[in-house]
Structures are given as C-alpha cells and as structure tokens.
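Design job #97: recover the sequence.
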C-alpha cells in the first residue's frame, strides 16, 4: 500500500506538529497528510510536494463531529494537539478538557472509523518532577519514578498517557485492533520556539546578559524540533511495520544536544544568533521565590483593572531547578532512530530563525496553544 497512505496530524500547525508535517510530506509512501488544528497556517498547506498532498482542516479536537469528518479515510494518526501551558494562564479544567478529553475523542474516533495506528505526543512533564522535587538523574523509559506531578500541564499529559496506553489493543469496529505508542519530548528548541525568543528579548533588556535560574549541577535534556519530528515519522512508520514491537511502548525523545548545564546550551543557541550576548550569573532560588510572591500580590491588587503579563510560578520554578534527565537508545533499538540533524546543524538552523524572528523585537506569544 506504499504511496497510498493517508496520515493525519492533530495540532499540525503547532511548533512540533508543523515540523512533523514537513517531514511526512517528504515521504514517498504517503499520499496525503491531513492537518487538524484550531489555527490554520497557509505555509503548512504549502508543504505539499510532488508525491504528497498536505491539506489543512480547521477544527477543535473537542468537537466530535469535526474530528470525525477530518479522520474519515485516514490510516495513521499522529496526535500532537495540546494546550501547552506552564505559567497558569489556562484554567486546569480547560487544560484537562483539551489534553485529556481531546485525546479520548481521538482514540474513540479511531475505533469508530477503524484507524489502527496512533502515535501520541506526550511530554517528560507527564513523568515529573514530582511535588517533592525529587530528581531523576539520567534515567530511561524503565526508571521507576512516582509521586504527584508538579506541573498541572504535566498532570494532564500523564492522564492522557494512561488513556493512550489503555487503548492499545482495543477492538476496532471492524474487528481489528488499535495500536498505540507514546513519544515524550523534553525541552524542545528550534525554529518557532517562543521561549528562545522570550529569553533573547529578556537578555537584550538586561544589556545583553543572560542570567539563569537552575543550579550549575542541574541536568535537563534539550532536543531539536527537527529530530523530535523525525522520531515521530519513524515511530509512525514502524508502528505499521512492526506493531508487535512498538505497541504500547513509550519513548523519550533525544539527540546529541548536550544535557549538562542547560543554561550553557541556551547561551550557545542565543549567542550563535547574537555573539554579543554574555552569560550572566545564577539567580538564587530565594530571590525568585520572593519575586513570584510579589507578582502574585500585585496581580491580586490590579486584576480588577488590569491583568499583568504571565510570570514564573512556583511549580515552574521548582521544575526548572530540579534535575530531570535521561539517557536512552530505545528508539534506536526499536525502530532505527538516528538524529536527522547534528547539534551543530540544529544550533545554526535555530540561530538563523532567531535572527529573523527578533528582527522586529516584538514580544512572543506566551499563552498556551489550543487545538
């Protein structure tokens, strides 16, 4: 059936989703890539190639009718749509409705329409850190780590993961079986990463100095968006070719981006775009804690008249300062994953985008994306 497959990417106009669509459109075994998103971007439709058509369909994954219409005739679903919010700008109920309820809709629709393959884009935030801020140091997919997840966003992703894993093997209406797997990105950088634009603007406002919050011995993985997307493409293909191996599996996303001293990684990314940026100093936890409390008080006072810009909160601060890293080659062993882009290539591609993105020095959109 090569050359006749129809893939659908929920959230395909988003940061990771758009790159997934771009790489899928370059695969000659795919006839059509459908994008289901609450935001329509013309540049995504323009990813159509000589062999693969890209079609963007506007809709919300909470809308059952619109979702069914988009999925009709699809063979593989990559479910990347989510509300990504770590700053408490989206109420938890809305986060849950999109990230959990929307995932339930996608899985139910696949069962009704006999779509046998689903790749779910989760997050390392679904694992931790937990509310006790216990570190995970270079773990892997089999590392045991418990406790309530610190970030509300992460809690919704953990709930969705549970639903996706429970759906694996579920009967389709034609008697077949649903096959699912999960990918967990960590801090994803690259073209379109709003947090990098935000960091750059903050550094320029501080006379070209980039300060940082995490202690120097903290570890956290960073992965280039192109490599995260490539892992999705390979996982989806091999979910079809080797369902017995990939079914019900979870994979951390990784590449050769350095994991130690994340502030150095961010400085390298920004300094490649603007060599005048200097690495500053560590901001103590207590100072940031006080600033968060002060911001909360000011917000309560001003809220009836004016809503201040989103600021760091304690769950996010605790996440930033807690080591949460992994080392794994599971994706390589299971479906032959190798990063499509080296650290050097990833850094320079990111820098080219950042130089263009900050040309107007407009502040980035901080609110969570909804699909």
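Job complete. Output follows.
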């Amino acid at each position: 059936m090569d050359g006749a497959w129809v893939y659908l990417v929920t959230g395909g106009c988003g940061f990771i989703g758009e790159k997934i669509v771009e790489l899928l459109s370059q695969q000659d075994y795919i006839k059509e890539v459908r994008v289901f998103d609450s935001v329509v971007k013309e540049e995504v439709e323009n990813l159509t190639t000589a062999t693969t058509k890209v079609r963007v369909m506007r809709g919300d994954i909470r809308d059952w009718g619109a979702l069914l219409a988009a999925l009709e005739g699809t063979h593989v679903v990559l479910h990347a749509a989510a509300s990504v919010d770590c700053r408490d700008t989206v109420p938890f109920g809305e986060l849950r409705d999109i990230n959990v309820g929307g995932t339930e809709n996608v899985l139910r629709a696949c069962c009704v329409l006999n779509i046998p393959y689903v790749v779910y884009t989760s997050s390392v935030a679904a694992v931790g850190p937990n509310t006790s801020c216990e570190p995970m140091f270079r773990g892997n997919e089999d590392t045991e780590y418990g406790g309530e997840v610190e970030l509300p966003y992460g809690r919704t992703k953990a709930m969705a993961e549970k639903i996706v894993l429970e759906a694996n093997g579920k009967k389709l209406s034609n008697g077949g079986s649903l096959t699912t797997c999960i990918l967990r990105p960590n801090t994803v950088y690259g073209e379109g990463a709003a947090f990098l634009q935000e960091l750059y603007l903050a550094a320029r406002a501080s006379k070209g100095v980039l300060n940082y919050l995490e202690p120097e011995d903290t570890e956290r993985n960073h992965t280039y968006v192109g490599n995260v997307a490539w892992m999705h493409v390979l996982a989806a293909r091999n979910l079809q070719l080797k369902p017995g191996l990939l079914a019900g599996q979870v994979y951390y996303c990784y590449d050769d981006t350095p994991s130690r001293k994340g502030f150095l990684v961010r400085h390298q990314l920004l300094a490649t775009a603007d060599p005048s940026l200097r690495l500053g100093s560590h901001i103590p936890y207590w100072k940031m804690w006080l600033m968060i409390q002060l911001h909360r008080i000011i917000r309560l006072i001003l809220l009836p008249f004016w809503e201040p810009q989103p600021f760091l909160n304690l769950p996010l601060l605790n996440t930033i300062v807690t080591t949460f890293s992994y080392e794994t080659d599971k994706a390589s062993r299971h479906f032959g994953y190798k990063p499509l882009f080296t650290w050097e290539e990833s850094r320079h591609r990111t820098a080219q985008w950042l130089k263009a993105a900050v040309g107007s020095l407009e502040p980035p959109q901080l609110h969570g994306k909804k699909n």
